[in-house]
Amino acid sequence: MTYVIDRTAAESYVLEDRSRLRKWLHDTGAVFTREILVVLHDPFTLIFSLLQPLVFLALFGPLLDGMLGAGGIGGDTALQWFLPGVLVMIAIFGTGMVGGNLLYELMTGAYERILATPLDRSSILVGRALKEFAPLVGQALLITVAAIPFGLAFYPIQVLVGLLILGIFGIGLGALSYALGLAAKGREWLFWGVQQSVIFPLLLLAGMMLPLDSGPAWMQAAAKVNPLTYIVDAERALFTGTLWDSDVAWGFVAAFATCAVGLWVGIRTVNRTV
Amino acid sequence: MPLRVLFVQRTVKSVTESVHRTGNAIRARGLTKTFRRRKETVEAVKGIDLDVAQGELVAILGPNGAGKSTTIRMLTSVLTPTSGTAEVAGRDVVREPAAVRARIGYVGQGNAGGYSYRVGDELRNQARFYSVPGDVAKRRAADLLEALELTGLEKRTVQSLSGGQRRRLDVAMGLMNHPRLLFLDEPTTGLDPHARANLWEHVLRLREENGMTLLLTTHYLDEADAMAERIVLIDHGTVIADAAPEVLERDYADDVVTVELAAGQSPATARSVLPSAVVSVTESVTGTGAVRLALSTRNGPELVPPLMRALDAAGVSVTSTDVKPASLDDVFLNLTGRSLREEAA
């Protein structure tokens, strides 16, 4: 029953001399661990999240086969064209949810407790975004492997580079979603309303579901300023086995830009909101 | 029964007063916080000075909206002050927030544990947030679960706990980094009397065993009166009084001695022989027609013997007497003209 703190032992581990980077990595890992444990304890969510992309692929893929070669769908098979789009979509839906998961914690007090700990502010954002991104790695490998019997050529190195681009982009989008969650504190409908009305136009204007080449000029112009377009193009290039390509380079540029803007907005919002 | 437990705790004070005190745990000067909501500007805190010595137990008492939580949030570096300075655990809250956070424990108004997370996980997560190594965290979590009577609940989700258990978990989480200074923001609000008494028992024991400094906020008068060595009374974002509860009650409010005169006795005669310690008299007539005199005085119990002798000597007979000691509510009422009881309700 008695609980006596041993003051002779090293008391505060936070105060140890560590490089900023080491502390940041530790903090990000700590936030990520907290979130991922909930997923791991709940196998149903895990199974469903893995099955979801397979369902998309099974229901969409056959429709695209008929359009092969027409209207800008390149690649050897429709699958090769469509699969990268599905991955980008899952990444966006996942990391776009970060703020939604936060809304509840803002209400109950868990968020305030996290703010009162010495965690690095950007680690709080990045750790949470990585948690939404982690299942994607599993999902990506699963559908890529599942698609091989249907004629998909598998380029492991290119797929990994593709995941890296998605991860960088996802951290930025997650941080933006987090900032939106904080701004919508106490008004959940606002978060979901804004989130949905931003994500769907972005998806469609990136040529993710259907190619934009046959679309009107204004849509093509809009696609040019949509960072997601460059991500999708990079993924398509990578999934067809290209690695050293300007599309891939532009994908990295778009991903890093989104990441930088997202973290900047996110950290500012964290520091301003309690 | 629960209330008795609450009041018995008062004896703990004398024990902890012997705790060696060096330096200030908290030193705040001119703290202010202004919020801007839409186009409105709200001055939540308008300049608070506060010193808390090592080992002290101080309660910030005040009505809802007085600025209690905002003050605590600034001291824990969760909120940045609009102006003013605060040194907490030897560090400046604005310049070195991370150093302050590492050295203090904070139990906020809400629940620390995420509702869909597991109890055991959250304790170890909290340790990770303070960079406590895994093996140490495991031991601390087990010890704190035991000390706060939560053993066996590790695999349960926070959501499935009772209100009292959840609050005890909050305290356990606030102690995972072994702070010397613990902040508790309305720790017992919303708990039933039994759970309140139980939480206090744990908090005060942990404090006594570890010589922790405690700064808490409450709007429960009985709690502040029974637990705190010192009360900082705040209203509209400023400190209106700061002293031990006994001192506040002595300096800012009077005890009231009520005497009921027997039928046919002259109130005028009675009033003419009152001892000089009586500050003021209020006369009233009860439903049965008896005359009652309410006498305000510094020290009620000490007034009764001379009062009885004086009335006896004047031939005035009395059917009953009653002594109501000054309360913190009287203190607040005298200082602000409003009752804290009504405000808290």
Written account of the structure:
The complex is a heterodimer of chains A (274) and B (345). Chain A is mostly helical. Chain A has one domain (17-272). Helices cover 73% and strands 0% of the residues of chain A. Chain A is built from 11 helices and no strands. The mean pLDDT of chain A is 84. Chain B has 345 residues and is α/β, with parallel strands linked by helices. In chain B, 38% of the residues lie in helices and 28% in strands. Chain B has helices at 2-8, 12-16, 68-75, 97-103, 119-129, 134-147, 163-174, 193-210, 221-227, 245-252, 267-272, 300-313, 328-336, 340-344; strands at residues 24-37, 40-53, 57-61, 83-88, 91-92, 104-107, 181-185, 213-218, 230-235, 238-243, 255-261, 278-285, 291-297, 318-324. In chain B, strands 6-7-8-3-9-10 form a 6-stranded mixed β-sheet, sandwiched between helices. A 4-stranded antiparallel β-sheet of chain B has the order 2-1-4-5, with helices on one face. A 4-stranded antiparallel β-sheet of chain B has the order 12-13-11-14, with helices on one face. In chain B, strand 4 and strand 5 (91-92) form a beta hairpin. In chain B, helix 10 crosses helix 13 (328-336). Chain B starts with a helix and ends with a helix. Classes of the chains: A mainly alpha (274), B alpha/beta (345). Chain A binds chain B through residues 1-5, 7, 9, 11-16, 23, 26-27, 29-31, 33-34, 37-38, 41, 104-105, 107-110, 112-119, 271, 274, and chain B through 73, 76-80, 98-99, 101-104, 106, 108-118, 121-122, 125-126, 128-133, 136, 143-144, 146-147, 170, 173, 177-178, 205-206, 209-210.
Main traits of this protein?
heterodimer; A: 274 residues; mainly alpha; 73% helix; globular; B: 345 residues; alpha/beta; Rossmann fold; Alpha-Beta Plaits; 2 domains; six-stranded mixed β-sheet; four-stranded antiparallel β-sheet; 38% helix; 28% strand; elongated
